[in-house]
């Protein structure tokens, strides 16, 4: 029996705020990857984007981190990481992935060589070092097409070196986005498409809209997150106007100072 | 409008709740927001009434479990409650009868609260007597709570399924009480109302609530996922997911329950005797 490859799933995004649907992505992805027989998902990371991203309506990172922590309290395998949110400027996804991959690899290398005790997932002999894959929704694949948002080399690295796990939503067809991109098509073996049959279009955008209008969002996010939002009076008419006339940071940063690819 | 001028509403949801999901719970929240947004109503209570085992729907697990799960799910709600009366009846109970039962309870509670205001007490008594007469459809009561059936568009459209509903029951539900229908597709719901004489007649009593965030967490899908060992986390409240696991509910076997049995309403309405 060949050993399964250990895998960590990383989700980058605004998480503005985190919703049940975000957390469901992890659960669906894990099920799917386990069913392929090739992988053992050993961890999940939620990495909220930094304030430097400049997206309209983005509330302070400290709040988005706090809410994600509250939401994931009840999860025994997914956790929040604030490294990306702490960086002074917006961080390219590929840089965030390199950081987490380096960290995971180091942990693994420190762990083996000693007689380490059983880990939570060790009933499958994981002889190989863990991999890192980017977890996202189908709408994320479409962002690869937006001019100036991604450098080609970065798409190559995310899809080729790491890999993507993409959960479909609504009518979006991730197969089409893969098909229409040369880079993604080439790495189709590294891109796992997960079908979410339950149509659940709980988008953070809709949640913010409901909150602005004083409407209920109960059962769309954990109660603890709703409580936090009310306590700190997040998501008002004003908060949605933040960054209104600001250009999204990726569109300015990557032309000023593109991040080196690994080959340089 | 002053708070005392608002009409009090109690929302009643009847269904299998097999199992209860976040979508069921959302319906209550959406309905309350919608009604209170009109400025005419104040929603004071939500009631979940799980159908009895006598309904004989395929895959329907024991009522005691369905009620327990609904209780766990509404633990964190301060206005939605579970009522086990319908689930405890030995035979299937028509929805109109369930509504009558709950309406009676509401009126009794209201009466007991107002022992001081004798004028109001007289009005409530008069309403109760009128209520006993099924041929009268009083819909306006001075600040007495109104009971409305909360449902999805599928229930509304099920009014058209032959032998599933008695014509007079539909008339009573929309005439005497009222319907709050949550739907993704407002056009279809309005079209359905338009094409039905009885629904059209009582259209003022039918509130169609658009659900902008599509949330089709069907219990059928949830059961399918559970049978296949797939995750249902975040589709139902965590305590319900735990309960299902602890009790080993929902398997290929449980899905076969009542497989060869005719649904109770169809049995009753096509039977030799009719009411």
TrEMBL record, chain A:
Subcellular location: Nucleus
A biological process from GO: NAD+ biosynthetic process
Pfam families referenced in this protein's UniProt entry, alphabetically: CTP_transf_like (PF01467)
Cofactor(s) this protein requires: Mg(2+); Zn(2+)
Catalytic reaction equation(s): beta-nicotinamide D-ribonucleotide + ATP + H(+) = diphosphate + NAD(+); nicotinate beta-D-ribonucleotide + ATP + H(+) = deamido-NAD(+) + diphosphate
Residue stretches making up the Cytidyltransferase-like domain: 10-209
InterPro entries noted in UniProt: Cyt_trans-like, Euk_NMN_adenylyltrnsfrase, NadD/NMNAT, NMNAT_euk, Rossmann-like_a/b/a_fold
Annotated NCBIfam families: nicotinate (nicotinamide) nucleotide adenylyltransferase
Family to which the UniProt record says this protein belongs: Belongs to the eukaryotic NMN adenylyltransferase family.
Listed name of the protein: Nicotinamide-nucleotide adenylyltransferase
Automatic annotation (TrEMBL), chain B:
UniProt enzyme class: transferase
Main location: nucleus
Pfam families hit by this protein: CTP_transf_like
Keyword annotations from UniProtKB, A to Z: ATP-binding, Magnesium, NAD, Nucleotide-binding, Nucleotidyltransferase, Nucleus, Phosphoprotein, Pyridine nucleotide biosynthesis, Transferase, Zinc
SUPFAM superfamilies per the UniProt record, alphabetical: Nucleotidylyl transferase
Molecular function per GO: ATP binding; nicotinamide-nucleotide adenylyltransferase activity; nicotinate-nucleotide adenylyltransferase activity
Keyword presence, Phosphoprotein: yes
Gene Ontology annotations for the cellular component aspect, listed alphabetically: nucleus
GO biological process: NAD+ biosynthetic process
Domain Cytidyltransferase-like: 12-224
InterPro entries in UniProt: Cyt_trans-like, Euk_NMN_adenylyltrnsfrase, NadD/NMNAT, NMNAT_euk, Rossmann-like_a/b/a_fold
EC number: 2.7.7.1, 2.7.7.18
The reaction(s) this protein catalyses: nicotinate beta-D-ribonucleotide + ATP + H(+) = deamido-NAD(+) + diphosphate; beta-nicotinamide D-ribonucleotide + ATP + H(+) = diphosphate + NAD(+)
Membership in a protein family: Belongs to the eukaryotic NMN adenylyltransferase family.
NCBIfam families named in the record: nicotinate (nicotinamide) nucleotide adenylyltransferase
Subunit structure: Homohexamer. Interacts with ADPRT/PARP1.
The protein's name: Nicotinamide-nucleotide adenylyltransferase
Species of the source: Salvelinus namaycush
């Amino acid at each position: 029996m060949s050993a399964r490859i250990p895998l960590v799933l990383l989700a980058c995004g605004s998480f503005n705020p985190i919703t049940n649907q975000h957390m469901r992505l992890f659960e669906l992805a894990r099920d799917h990857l386990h069913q392929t027989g090739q992988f053992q998902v050993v961890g999940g990371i939620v990495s909220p984007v930094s304030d430097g991203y400049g997206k309209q309506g983005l509330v302070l990172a400290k709040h988005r981190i706090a809410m994600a922590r509250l939401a994931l309290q009840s999860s025994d395998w997914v956790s929040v990481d604030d490294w990306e949110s702490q960086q002074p400027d917006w961080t390219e996804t590929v840089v965030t992935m390199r950081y987490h991959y380096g960290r995971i690899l180091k942990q693994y290398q420190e762990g083996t060589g000693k007689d380490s005790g059983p880990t939570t997932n060790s009933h499958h002999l994981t002889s190989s070092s863990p991999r890192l894959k980017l977890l996202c929704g189908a709408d994320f694949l479409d962002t690869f097409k937006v001019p100036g948002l991604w450098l080609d080399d970065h798409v190559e690295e995310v899809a080729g070196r790491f890999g993507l796990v993409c959960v479909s939503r609504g009518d979006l067809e991730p197969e089409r986005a893969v098909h229409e991109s040369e880079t993604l098509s080439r790495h189709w073996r590294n891109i796992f498409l997960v079908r979410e049959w339950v149509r659940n279009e709980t988008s953070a955008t809709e949640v913010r809209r409901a909150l602005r209008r004083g409407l209920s969002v109960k059962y769309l996010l954990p109660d603890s997150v709703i409580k936090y939002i009310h306590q700190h009076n997040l998501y008002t008419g004003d908060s949605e106007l933040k960054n209104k006339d600001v250009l999204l940071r990726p569109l300015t940063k990557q032309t000023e100072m593109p991040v080196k690819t690994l080959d340089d | 409008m002053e708070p005392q001028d608002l009409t009090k509403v109690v929302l009643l949801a009847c269904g299998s709740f097999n199992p209860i999901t976040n979508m069921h719970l959302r319906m209550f929240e959406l309905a309350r927001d919608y009604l209170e947004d009109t400025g005419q109503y104040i929603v004071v209570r939500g009631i979940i009434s799980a159908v009895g085992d006598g309904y004989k729907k395929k895959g329907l697990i024991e009522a005691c479990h369905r009620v327990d799960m609904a209780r766990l799910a509404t633990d964190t709600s301060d206005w939605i409650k579970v009522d086990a009366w319908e689930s405890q009846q030995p035979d299937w109970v028509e929805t109109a009868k369930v509504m009558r039962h709950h309406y009676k309870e509401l009126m009794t509670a209201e009466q007991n609260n107002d022992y001081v205001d004798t004028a109001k007490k007289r009005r409530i008594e008069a309403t109760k007597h009128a209520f006993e007469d099924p041929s009268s459809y009083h819909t306006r009561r001075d600040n007495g709570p109104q009971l409305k059936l909360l449902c999805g568009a599928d229930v509304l459209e099920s009014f058209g399924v032959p032998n599933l509903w008695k014509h007079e029951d539909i008339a009573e539900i929309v005439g005497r009480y009222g319907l709050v229908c949550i739907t993704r597709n407002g056009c279809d719901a309005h079209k359905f109302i338009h094409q039905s004489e009885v629904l059209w007649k009582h259209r003022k009593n039918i509130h169609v609530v658009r659900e902008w965030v599509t949330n089709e967490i069907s219990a059928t899908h949830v059961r399918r996922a559970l049978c296949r060992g797939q995750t249902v986390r975040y589709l139902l409240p965590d305590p319900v997911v735990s309960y299902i696991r602890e009790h080993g509910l929902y398997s290929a076997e449980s899905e076969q329950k009542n497989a060869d049995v005719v649904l109770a309403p169809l049995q009753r309405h096509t039977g030799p005797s009719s009411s």
